[in-house]
UniProtKB/TrEMBL annotation:
PANTHER family: PHOSPHOGLUCOMUTASE (ALPHA-D-GLUCOSE-1,6-BISPHOSPHATE-DEPENDENT), PHOSPHOHEXOSE MUTASE. Its EC number is 5.4.2.10. The keyword S-adenosyl-L-methionine does not apply. This is Phosphoglucosamine mutase. The lineage of its organism: Bacteria, Bacillati, Cyanobacteriota, Cyanophyceae, Synechococcales. HAMAP family: GlmM_B.
Length: 461
């Protein structure tokens, strides 16, 4: 293979120091994320991941994904590794198959919910979990080497698109047998990775399926559709009198739902409903759910009122999984639609979540709207993203005295019936300002004030 001969000179060029955020390495293609970096990362993974087993490689539909796949694969081959190319597939398929096939690790090329110009690389260990921080540091050390060893000529690459069917069967095997209502479901696949298998899965479970944005299209992935923009799905559900709609993000590791009235149902409600169903069957140890800081106050108070326990973590499904491992919890998730079920896997899986939610509705005598309405009433919540391009400034927002004074004033005004959460995004140059309170007016006023204050204080003049 001629590309192997090019590997060693390219690998000698030191890349910019990579930053593993909350979900791997992510950035704008050609700026933070380059073919050179991908080549070096592949080579580094070839040495850091366990030996003598293949490395799995998957991608979403972005136009830059085939280029990054080729670069990662060249690096892995240069390190003498065997590569199994899964092709277009969801992120959770790579993670699940890595563990199922006892692979050395897995790499997924995707920027999840980010716009088309971005891309990213997620690295999974042999157990299918996201690479722990210690192993990330090992990779970073390899990436900083200015003169790595010469390339190895023994690598091999194999197309294994057939393994996606194994993943699909694994999802369907988790569904309960028995009679269920045939539901009319509209799926928004947002031109992304879910286009590889979502329709087949829902048809095989017995749903009547209508599809929006159902072809892989890297120019339009996440643009005005999917889980970050529910408007088109909401309208379609109402117009076509469907029972529910489900929207995925670009790599299908999360989903959000829409009820028959066109009202959104987010991850908090999905987690409450699924958790309640498991709890009623005695399948939720200590009645415990794992949530993140973003979980709604209404959700928290309703769950504890029914006798449940909550374990809170920082945002990120790796934090949720770590807490589930520590506490023995069976279910955890995020408001954004990442839901983790120990019986299935260690990362968020939007397809699994969507199938389980659909089954829950199909086996009950109630609509999604009725079930969600009976669960809890969410507190009004508003989130404003403030663009802060300088990473050091963004990460150090807590040191700004005027912003801290503003937060203190807001907390005093809302008392025990409100809260503020400000955090720097781990995947985008954004400071996320969230305010939640019993009264909508307080939410609107203080969220806008704090977002404006953050923009004024943290943006360079």
């Amino acid at each position: 293979m001629s590309h192997l001969l090019l590997a060693e000179p390219a690998l000698a060029v030191e890349p910019p120091a990579p930053v593993f955020g909350t979900d791997g390495i992510r950035g704008r293609v050609g700026v933070e994320l380059t073919p050179t970096l991908a080549l070096q990362l592949g080579y580094s993974c070839g040495h850091v991941l366990e030996q003598d087993r293949p490395v799995l490689l998957g991608r979403d539909s972005r136009r830059s994904s085939p280029m990054l796949v080729a670069a990662l694969q060249a690096g892995l081959l240069a390190a003498g590794r065997e590569v199994w190319d899964l092709g277009l597939c969801p992120t959770p398929a790579v993670a699940w198959l890595t563990r199922r096939q006892q692979a050395a690790g897995g790499l997924m090329i995707s920027a999840s919910h980010n716009p088309p110009a971005d891309n990213g690389i997620k690295v999974f260990a042999r157990d299918g979990c996201k690479l722990p921080r210690r192993r990330q540091r090992d990779l970073e050390q390899w990436l900083k080497r200015s003169a790595p060893p010469g390339c190895h000529a023994g690598g091999s690459s194999h197309q294994r698109h057939d393994l996606l069917k194994v993943y699909e069967q694994g999802l369907l095997a988790q569904l309960e047998s028995g009679q269920r209502q045939r539901l009319r479901v509209i799926l928004d696949l947002c031109w992304g990775a879910a286009t590889s298998c979502a329709v087949s899965l829902f048809e095989r479970m017995g749903a009547e399926v209508t599809v929006l944005h159902g072809q892989p299209d890297g120019n339009r992935i996440n643009v005005g559709c999917g889980s970050t923009a529910l408007g088109l799905l909401q309208q379609a559900v109402v117009d076509q009198e469907a029972d529910l709609g489900i929207a995925f993000d670009g790599d299908a590791d999360r989903c959000l739902a829409v009820d028959h009235r066109g009202q959104p149902v987010n991850g908090d409600h999905i987690l409450y409903l699924w958790g309640g169903a498991l709890d009623d069957r005695g399948l939720l140890p200590e009645h415990r759910l794992v949530i993140t800081r973003m979980a709604n106050l209404g959700f928290r108070r309703a769950w504890t009122a029914r006798g449940g326990a909550l374990e809170e973590t920082p945002v990120g499904d790796q934090h949720v999984y770590a807490a589930m491992e520590r506490t023995g919890a069976a279910l955890g998730g995020e408001q954004s639609g990442h839901v983790l079920w120990r019986q299935h896997h260690a990362i968020g899986d939007g397809l699994m979540t969507a199938l389980q939610l659909t089954q829950l509705i199909a086996t009950s005598s109630c609509s999604l709207a009725t079930l969600a309405g009976a669960s809890f009433r969410p507190y009004p919540q508003k989130l404003i993203n403030v663009r802060i391009t300088d990473q050091q400034t963004r990460q150090g927002w807590k040191r700004n005295a005027r912003l801290q004074n503003g937060i203190a004033a807001a907390e005093a005004a809302m008392g025990q019936d409100g809260r503020i959460l400000i955090r720097a995004s781990g995947t985008e140059p954004l400071l996320r300002v969230m305010v939640e309170a019993r009264e909508t007016t307080l939410v609107d006023v203080w969220c806008q004030k704090l977002a404006s204050l953050a923009a004024a204080e943290l943006q360079p003049s």
